[in-house]
Design a protein that fits this description.
- Helix content is 67%, strand content 0%.
- With 107 residues, the chain is an all-alpha fold.
- The protein is elongated.
- The relative contact order is 0.14.
């Protein structure tokens, strides 16, 4: 699930280009019902959909992913990139945990 789909941001970008949600859905090969689910945070965008949205709205794929929710994948971010990102997060959490445990041991 996407963590937060900024519907207002997407609607503003569409309006700036004179486009509708129907056009955005069609360009991405989605049904209007699927797009409505994404707008309600009940469906995550695929990497391909992120790429199409970026092209249609004239912004970067990273910006689309950010506005669609932080867990939405970027085009080309294969499993290796996701695994590396997860490993970095785990390492940071382990470091934080070690630091917190160290404080408790000193007090």
């Amino acid at each position: 699930m996407a963590l937060f789909f900024d519907a207002q941001w997407f609607d503003t970008r569409l309006a700036e280009r004179g486009l509708s949600r129907r056009v955005l859905a069609a360009a991405a090969g989605m049904s209007e019902a699927d797009l409505a689910l994404a707008y309600k945070d009940q469906r995550e965008l695929s990497a391909d959909e992120v790429g199409v949205f970026a092209e249609v709205l004239g912004v970067s794929a990273a910006e689309i992913a950010r506005q669609a929710g932080v867990s939405t994948p970027l085009p080309g971010a294969g499993p290796e990139a996701r695994i590396a990102a997860l490993e970095r997060k785990v390492a940071a959490l382990e470091a934080d945990l070690a630091r917190l445990l160290g404080r408790n041991g000193q007090g």
